[in-house]
Amino acid sequence: MNKLGLIAGEGKFPLQIAGEAKTKGVELFVICAKGNANEEDFKPYASKTITLKLGQLSKALKFFKENDVKQAVMAGRVQHFNIFNLIPDFRTAKVLASLRDLRAKSVLEAAINEFKKEGIEFVSSALFLEKCIPSKSVLTKRKPTEEEEKNIELGLKVSKTLADLDVGLTSVIYDKAVIAVEGMEGTDECILRAGKIVAQNPGKNKSLVVVKVARPKQDDRYDLPIIGKGTIKSMIEAKAKVLAIEADKTIVLDIEEVCALADKNDISIVAI
What we know:
- The chain is an alpha/beta fold.
- It has 2 domains: 3-122, 3-Layer(aba) Sandwich (Rossmann fold), CATH 3.40.50; 131-271, Cytidine Deaminase, domain 2 (3-Layer(aba) Sandwich), CATH 3.40.140.80.
- Helices cover 36% and strands 21% of the residues.
- The protein has helices at residues 13-23, 39-42, 57-66, 90-97, 104-117, 146-164, 187-199, 229-238, 255-264; strands at residues 3-8, 27-33, 48-52, 71-75, 121-122, 137-138, 170-174, 177-181, 208-212, 226-227, 240-245, 251-252, 268-271.
- The strands form 3 sheets. The chain has a 6-stranded mixed beta sheet. The protein has a 5-stranded parallel beta sheet with strand order 3-2-1-4-5, sandwiched between helices.
- The chain is globular, with a radius of gyration of 19 Å.
């Protein structure tokens, strides 16, 4: 691979890919999603950068084709509710009109197909980051208790159902009860919401357990489950003590720092 296109959303995920691309001598061309990624952050790594609004599909295709980009990757979160506020160009409007629903999976698959028509293939969003995807293990010093393991089992069932419906990837469990499930607000907000609910109903001294999974038949070209230090900080604020993620399918950004922060706050992270 000599050239790579990157469509960047918010967070450190796309920056890590950019850094790895430069290290490996891959020429990078970056499209920053307006309001989510900043061109200045990518200029140390990229030959060219551009900022585009959601819905400017024709300009995105033109940018990659002008720079002879044949392979590309999506990385970083873009608030999905932004789709309701976008002003689409003609090509985007045509694509959206052909969809039966506006779920993330539907929209992203349709966008990827449009790029493919122009000879641009999207590759795994875990490109260059294989070392950040843990296999089955306990990643921290603290292990889940037997009671917490039972809550993980419940959370796994709930999160898998959510993921299958393309609603969200995360559930939060407290004393064998589902406290919160993830919608468009994202994992961190879901965790904080669960913490507020438990704080308003004190009494039992039980652990808040967070379970995040991948979608069934996950397409690794987009929307792989990701956790980072922000996830752990949300857990600290919510007083959550266990984070269970799906092994071999979840990216842990800054994995050593994430585990160190969890250990410092007596939080268990387990890849199941």
